[in-house]
Design brief:
This protein is of the alpha/beta class and 173 residues long. It is 29% helix and 13% strand. Helix 2 links the parallel strand 1 and strand 2. The structure holds pyridoxal-5'-phosphate (PLP).
């Protein structure tokens, strides 16, 4: 939905039957001169094979959008999931490792993108000029109350992840 909203066309890769993540080996063949970004989604605690994404992204000069909605506290080859994308997102929906009831978080190292996200989050108010809107978005503001709940949960993230792993092990057995 987010991809189609600005008029972009998503090109799908199939799911791997073993991990349910995208088949990374399908990506390169789907890249055309029109391709702008690779959007990856880590699922059910299993990180996408990032090495096989980072290489084509670099080769074809593509951005990486990382859906880390389910990956709070998860690591891929020593690096936290959510740190691979030019822009990465986490969900705080109730079934996630950290929840604030609803809401989520966008992370990026790119200050320009960060500023744009702050603007889009808040009805497209500009940084220094309020009530002048050159674009339209919506109200996606996160409340301080939600942030307080989220921060308290963040302190217990290791414990939550450990518990989920124990539950996963139990189901597997
Ligand atoms: C991988 C993944 N992406 C996106 C979402 C959507 O997140 P939200 O419900 O916070 O919009 C979810 C879960 O709800 C998810 O598991």
């Amino acid at each position: 939905m987010a991809v189609t909203k600005p008029g972009a066309i998503p090109v799908l890769a199939d799911s791997d039957i073993r991990t349910w993540n995208m088949k990374v080996e399908e990506i390169e063949a789907k890249i055309t001169p029109k391709t702008k970004a690779i959007m990856i989604v880590h699922l059910y605690g299993l990180p996408v094979e990032m090495d096989q994404i980072l290489a084509p992204a670099k080769k074809y000069n593509l951005k990486i959008i990382e859906d880390a909605a389910e990956m709070h506290g998860q690591i891929y080859r020593g690096k936290p999931c959510g740190s691979f994308g030019d822009i990465s997102v986490f969900s705080f929906y109730p079934n996630k490792h950290i929840t604030t009831g609803e809401g989520g978080m966008v992370v990026t190292d790119d200050e320009e993108l960060a500023e744009r996200c702050r603007m889009l989050r808040n009805l497209c108010f500009k940084k220094d000029v309020r009530y002048v809107h050159d674009e339209i978005s919506g109200n996606y503001r996160f409340t301080n109350l939600q942030a307080a709940v989220g921060l308290a949960q963040l302190e217990r993230l290791d414990e939550f992840v450990e518990r989920k792993r124990a539950m996963g092990k139990y189901y597997t057995e």
